[in-house]
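Input record, target 12 of the design panel.
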């Protein structure tokens, strides 16, 4: 009796994983060494290796030197092909997309980004991303025959398997353009294009994952991550898990109410942290005092010039963020608190008052208080996190939803 297709696929993928993991751990191996390392039958291994070679995940390496050790030819060895992309990460931001790829050795093969206007429709954003992938793969000689999956970060609430619960339920107030249709469009287009599963999640949560694995949270137990840019988002990694929450909202620190009588927020509430401390909110507040101010660059210039009122606005924004992070931290008790995003361009002008407010309000029960620190990663953190989600191997992803959607047949 034959096994159901899904089981066969899973078993095959597990075997492939064992072969790739052995080559990652040991470097190039002969077929007999590999057979010993993975404990698979010769026939099965022959089949798996043949397929991986055909798809470009593996390559053959001639033995070092002539190496004639007595009789016979020395065995050709198998190795991971460094140019074979095994995971693709795509991070769609408000005004730019970043794409990154990792090979079977889990090395980052490339990372690139390109800007688009914030009003760009989602179909066009996907085209721009695919175009960037095409150009970069051509330039770097990367191949995708062995692609295992595509991870995608999107702004706003995304819950795996339950597309885009959150803002879009409050009709007329959504700024995340397209609601559930957005996730479906991105997921289907990329799945059709690459023929692999596509995993979609909130891009800030993806960045939090990257920060926990490779950045400031590496080797620490628990991370609270906040990104203060166009909006304010966050992510929580606790007790070895990246949390999504029951409706995809875990870690959304930007929508904690700070001023009940404040401005209406895009989420439908009033006075959220985002309405007071996001980059547009800070620009708006400074422009109210200094009409020549149009952008955050102008704000940073005024800070550099020591403009007292601008310093006060930025300091107040930092204080609001610090208070909300202290509340979140008192609830969740992470070891590390990381602040990322465009706001960090204001440097100590924002980080110092933020840390002060945090220290004043966090429950101080131990000497290892997690002082907020700036991110250790660059602007490709979201794309790197999307790659980590595809590999799905990190212990941080225990219990994390498996690759959703995509083509599985
Ligand atoms: Zn809000």
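The sequence produced for target 12 reads:
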């Amino acid at each position: 009796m034959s096994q159901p297709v899904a089981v066969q696929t899973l078993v095959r993928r597990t075997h492939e994983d064992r072969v790739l993991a052995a080559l990652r751990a040991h470097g190039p191996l002969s077929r007999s060494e590999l057979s010993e390392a993975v404990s698979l039958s010769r026939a099965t291994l022959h089949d798996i290796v043949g397929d991986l070679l055909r798809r470009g995940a593996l390559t053959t390496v001639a033995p070092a030197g002539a190496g004639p050790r007595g009789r016979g030819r020395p065995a050709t060895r198998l190795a991971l092909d460094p140019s074979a992309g095994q995971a693709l990460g795509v991070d769609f931001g408000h005004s730019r997309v970043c794409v990154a790829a990792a090979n079977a050795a889990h090395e980052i093969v490339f990372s690139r980004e390109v800007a688009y206007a914030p009003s760009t429709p989602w179909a066009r954003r996907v085209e721009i991303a695919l175009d960037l992938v095409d150009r970069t793969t051509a330039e770097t000689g990367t191949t995708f025959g062995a692609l295992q999956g595509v991870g995608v970060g999107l702004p706003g609430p995304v819950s795996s398997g339950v597309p885009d619960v959150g803002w879009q339920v409050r009709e007329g107030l959504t700024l995340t353009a397209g609601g559930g249709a957005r996730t479906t469009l991105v997921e289907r287009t990329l799945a059709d294009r690459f023929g692999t599963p596509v995993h979609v999640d909130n891009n800030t949560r993806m960045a939090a994952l990257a920060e926990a694995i490779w950045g400031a949270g590496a080797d620490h137990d628990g991370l609270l991550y906040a990104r203060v840019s166009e909006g304010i988002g966050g992510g929580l990694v606790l007790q070895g898990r990246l949390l999504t929450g029951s409706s995809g909202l875990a870690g959304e620190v930007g929508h904690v109410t700070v001023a009940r009588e404040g401005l209406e927020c895009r989420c439908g509430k009033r006075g959220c942290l985002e309405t007071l401390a996001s980059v547009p909110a800070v620009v708006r507040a400074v422009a109210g005092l200094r009409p020549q101010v149009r952008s955050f660059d102008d704000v940073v210039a005024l800070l550099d010039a020591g403009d007292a009122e601008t310093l006060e606005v930025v300091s107040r924004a930092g204080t609001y963020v610090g208070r909300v992070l202290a509340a979140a931290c008192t609830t969740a008790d992470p070891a590390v608190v990381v602040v990322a995003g465009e706001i960090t361009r204001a440097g100590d002008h924002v980080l110092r008052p933020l840390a002060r407010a945090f220290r004043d309000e966090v429950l101080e029960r131990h000497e290892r208080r997690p002082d907020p620190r700036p991110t250790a990663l660059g602007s490709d953190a979201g794309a790197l996190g999307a790659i980590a989600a595809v590999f799905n191997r990190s212990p941080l992803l225990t219990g994390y939803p498996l690759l959703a959607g995509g083509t599985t047949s």
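DSSP finds twelve helices and 13 strands in the chain.
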